[in-house]
Design goal:
Helix content: 10-25%
Bound molecules: adenosine-5'-triphosphate, magnesium ion
Distance between the termini: 43 Å
Number of helices: 6
Shape: elongated
Mean pLDDT: 94
Length: 328
């Protein structure tokens, strides 16, 4: 915080917010415009004036709060250098990029803004403001109905988002001259480090498939069916889902996965109330013993829901690949 350059406009905007008391403040801007820096400054100022401040971090890649591939809720605290406090909420999106994952991104944004219990709720967003990024920003506005949109823009680049939502109050401010772009490699490295830090304290947990439910997959969603050569086969109204090395040769197969498809898959984990509690990496599913082995820092007693994601990760946080378009 001490290296932050505070343009006069940022101070004026903050004073205006203290005055007008918009509760939910959505911060928009292109990549590296200083959205997160502004959110930190605003939260610190509101906190210093005696107000409670919740932060909803909807950036999936470059996060201030919690691990990548999630929407997170935190609370600004006064501790020096650590003013964003513990994780109070998490919604697993499943990817570090919004394209293809717009629905969980918008749902996660809505759920965590709804869960925030504070005088001010500051919503940080990612820097994708063109194309699909523009579309998702519109739905995020629809979902949270912000009392104020703060738009960090240089030369009108956010107008295609702001004008269609012109019924919402918006403040257009300019980025600091100190805002610096980060290249793709720096972003990748910071994601890897964030995943590695998250999984540092992880341990192996083995769970019976009767102890957990699986979301975002058709696997285990239907009654078992006998299919020669398959490790697993289940019948669903959409067709048979099978895990087998070679084609099972049935006309009614909706999906066939190769054995080992689950190894290193990034998953979200939720508790018995379907509240996100963290992430896990799948070590493997034992179809014979009907158990799943995970690697996760979340305590075993909280693991009740496993949500399949889109990304394969190594234990050290590096990205190994993505789930193909057919999904799991
Ligand atoms: N007001 C400021 N004072 C000093 N440095 C700044 C300021 N605004 C931005 N920066 C620097 O510019 C870079 C990008 O800033 P920041 O991460 O806040 O942007 P962002 O819009 O949140 O980026 P992203 O699109 O990755 O989410 C950082 O290195 C940050 O330290
Ligand atoms: Mg940011």
């Amino acid at each position: 915080m001490k290296d932050l350059d505070i343009p006069a406009q940022w101070r004026e905007q903050t004073a205006g917010i203290l005055d007008g008391r918009p509760r939910v403040i959505l911060v928009l801007g292109g990549r590296d415009m200083g959205k997160s820096s502004f959110c930190r400054f605003l939260a610190a100022e509101l906190l210093a004036s005696g107000h409670s401040v919740a932060i909803v971090d909807t950036d999936l890649g470059q996060k201030d709060i919690g691990p990548p591939a999630t929407v997170t809720l935190g609370r600004a605290t006064g501790a020096a250098g650590q003013w964003i406090g513990d994780l109070e909420g998490l919604y697993f999106v499943g990817s570090t990029h919004p394209v293809g994952r717009m629905l969980p991104l918008v749902i996660g944004t809505a759920r965590l803004v709804g869960a925030a219990n504070a005088a001010f709720v500051v919503v940080d967003t990612d820097g994708y403001v063109d194309g699909a990024g523009r579309v998702v920003k519109g739905y995020q506005i629809d979902a949270v109905r912000p009392d104020l949109i703060v738009a960090l823009e240089k030369r009108g680049e956010l107008e295609p988002i702001l004008r269609p939502y012109g019924t919402y109050p918006a403040a257009r401010i300019r980025p600091s001259a100190k805002a610096r772009p980060r290249d793709r490699w720096q972003r990748e490295l910071s994601r890897k480090q964030a995943f590695a830090a998250y999984f540092r304290e992880a341990r192996r947990v083995e769970l019976g498939l009767d102890e957990v439910v699986l979301q975002r997959s058709l696997l285990f969603a239907g009654e078992p069916v006998a299919v020669a050569g398959a490790l697993y086969a289940g019948r669903t109204p959409e067709g048979v889902v099978a895990v087998a090395e070679t084609p099972v040769g049935r006309a009614d197969v909706a999906k066939q996965l190769r054995p080992g498809f689950e190894r290193n898959l990034l998953c979200g984990v939720a508790d018995g109330h379907d509240q996100g509690v963290g992430l896990a990496l799948v070590e493997g599913i034992d179809f014979g013993r009907r158990s799943v082995a995970l690697f996760s820092p979340v305590p075993r007693e909280k693991l009740r829901v496993i949500q399949f994601g889109d990304l394969y990760l190594a234990w050290d946080g590096s990205e190994l690949g993505r789930v193909d378009r057919a999904g799991l």
